[in-house]
Specification:
- The strands form six sheets. Strands 1, 4, 5, 6, 8, 9, 10, 11 and 12 form a nine-stranded mixed beta sheet that branches. A seven-stranded parallel beta sheet has the order 15-18-21-24-27-30-32, with no helix packed on it. A seven-stranded parallel beta sheet has the order 16-19-22-25-28-31-33.
- Helices cover 16% and strands 27% of the residues.
- The longest helix is centred in the middle third of the chain and has 11 residues, at 217-227.
- By secondary structure, it is of the alpha/beta class.
- The chain has eight helices and 33 strands.
- The mean pLDDT is 86.
């Protein structure tokens, strides 16, 4: 019988609806980040850097790009005969078949997978956060305290605590109570959605609570363990951790990478971030090009000027084009004489010559002000923007558009242009 001390279950099925058109065709963990990475690279790299070599990745929403990216796990050294990385989509069973309906339901549906490794401990991770964390240190804390469930927590400012699941602990960090998004928080220790369970404890809780609709860790499994008097502990993490669940936090996290002294360093020798890299030629910069404080991915051709931006791989930026404070993802082509300000441009987009993005006054977005805000322009993947178009702030474009879609060659601030056939 195989026996693994700790295996990881990585929840990567999320749609990420607050990322708007960025996730209309791709799962949130597969969204590009930092020029050459995808969001899921961070928890996967944490696993292999922490000595966790068995990872089940639970996918559901738009899984194709994620599955292709992970493959058999070679970039993360997770192509193992025993263990390694396994993609776990929902599947048809002889009795009831269902999609994953909640975080814990997804884990429950894969009890057989976990059982096959006979683990002592199971690490539950989310596939949509940017951070570096040594899970081995958390496991040591779990063992020392004879905990049955350890929850990673992060101190947050008290005024922000009401947005999180909050843990209340005694002086030994044992959890005495918890509150989901409390109006008047009694603690500032926010759950990071990272858990280590004793396998026996987790299995019993999952089986007992299996019938709960949308079975969830925060709502069902952890309260059940607490009610049963199981020892629960909070492991405090003080490193960099970013939930990139909104367009603004996603944009901010990318911009933080290009600070002179980045708070989150992609270049550390002892804690590498691994990814699937295509074999691409080096970057090319023409004589007229100018680049300041930016990340430029491999295979990109820069003929214009790039300031304070994150440029993916295989991107072309035309002559006399100026890109500022923007994220341009892989294989996008921007024509000559363009001006791109505070924009998030997804993969395989074509912006023709003489276009201007992020121009004018800031106005609330007409369809989804909670998604498209903070002055950002968002362009969905494989979109085409015709020559000579001006686009305002808090605007969103998705689909192959032509001149007839723009009144007076412009899309005003706060407007959304989604072509028929593009489901968002």
């Amino acid at each position: 019988m195989i026996k693994k001390e700790m295996i990881a279950m990585l929840l990567a099925g999320g749609q990420g609806s607050r990322l708007g058109v960025l996730t209309s065709k791709v799962a949130k963990p597969a969204v590009s980040f930092g020029g050459k990475y995808r969001i899921i690279d961070f928890p996967l790299s944490n696993c292999i850097n922490s000595g966790v070599d068995t990872v089940g990745v639970l996918t559901q929403y738009q899984p194709l790009r994620l599955n292709t990216h992970i493959g058999i796990g070679i970039p993360w050294d997770l192509d193992r005969n025993i263990g390694g990385v396994t993609v776990l989509p929902p599947y048809e069973k002889s009795s009831n078949s269902e999609w994953y309906t909640g975080t814990a339901n997804a884990i429950y549906q894969n009890i057989d997978y976990m059982e096959s490794f006979n683990p002592e401990y199971v690490l539950i991770l989310s596939g949509d956060h940017i951070y570096k964390m040594d899970y081995e240190v958390m496991l040591d804390f779990h063992k020392q305290n004879k905990s049955e469930c350890t929850i990673a927590v992060m101190p947050v400012p008290m005024e922000e605590a009401k947005r999180f699941g909050i843990m209340i602990t005694d002086e030994n960090r044992r959890i005495t109570d918890f509150e989901e998004k409390p109006a008047n928080p009694r603690s500032n220790l926010a759950s990071m959605g990272i858990y280590i369970f004793n396998w026996k404890t987790l299995k019993e809780a999952l089986i007992t609570m299996a019938e709960q609709p949308s079975l969830d860790f925060g709502k069902h499994i952890i309260p059940y363990c607490h009610e049963q008097g199981k020892p629960l502990y909070a492991y405090e993490f003080n490193g960099y951790w970013k939930d990139v669940g909104t367009l603004h936090s996603y944009w901010e996290a990318n911009m933080e990478l290009i600070d002179i002294v980045p708070e989150f360093n992609l270049y550390e020798e002892y804690w590498k971030i691994y990814t699937k890299s295509d074999t691409l030629p080096p970057q090319y910069f023409s004589r007229e090009s100018e680049v300041e404080k930016s990340i430029i991915g491999e295979g990109s051709d820069i003929y214009g000027k790039v300031y304070n931006s994150v440029i993916g791989c295989g991107v072309t930026i035309g002559k006399n084009t100026v890109v500022r404070d923007s994220i341009i993802m892989n294989n996008t082509v921007i024509g000559d004489n363009c001006e791109i300000n505070m924009s998030i441009v997804a993969e395989n987009v074509e912006i023709k010559e003489n276009c201007r993005l992020g121009i004018g006054e800031e106005v609330d977005n007409e369809t989804d002000p909670h998604i498209y805000n903070n002055g950002l322009v968002c362009i969905g993947e494989k979109s085409v923007i015709p020559a000579g178009v001006t686009v305002g702030k808090n605007a969103c474009i998705f689909g192959v558009t032509d001149a007839g879609d723009y009144e007076g060659n412009a899309l005003a601030s706060g407007k959304t242009l989604i072509k028929a056939g593009e489901n968002v």
